[in-house]
Design a protein that fits this description.
Length: about 140
């Protein structure tokens, strides 16, 4: 995990930020950054997710594993190891009358993220597969 601290240091330098401004930008306490960079603490999942959210072009593979470039323009694709969608989920997705907020403007759904109580998730992004319009 020491390697991820080095990548966070490199990330801060890459975006030409101070440790304090990096902490402010991702929404964590400044001391958290100091503790991670010094090796005292390991970055939590929450810390990693906040970092990836604050820097949308940041490569998660690079941050977590040191693989590839620091930034990526590629859109994430579902992993081959993600289990098949259950029949129950498929039925809900094909419902004739989708639930749409009456105050929200009609828009196409770009992506779907299913979060499960056991901490697993499925990510779906397929062009033209989720065209739900207000009727």
């Amino acid at each position: 995990m020491k390697q991820i601290a080095l990548r966070i240091h490199e990330l801060i330098a890459f975006y030409q930020l101070s440790s304090a401004s990096f902490a402010d930008q991702i929404g964590v306490q400044r001391s958290s950054i100091s503790h991670i960079l010094s090796g005292r603490n390991k970055p939590s999942l929450d810390f990693v997710l906040k970092t990836l959210k604050a820097f949308p072009t940041l490569s998660s593979d690079w941050l977590l594993h040191g693989q590839g470039d620091i930034e990526t323009n590629a859109t994430p694709t579902p992993s081959a190891s993600v289990p098949e969608i259950s029949k129950k989920t498929s039925t809900v997705a094909k419902e004739e009358h989708p639930i749409i907020s009456p105050t929200a403007p009609a828009a196409e759904i770009d992506q779907v993220l299913i979060l499960r109580s056991d901490g697993t998730f499925q990510y779906f992004k397929e062009q033209n597969s989720l065209n739900l319009h207000k009727k």
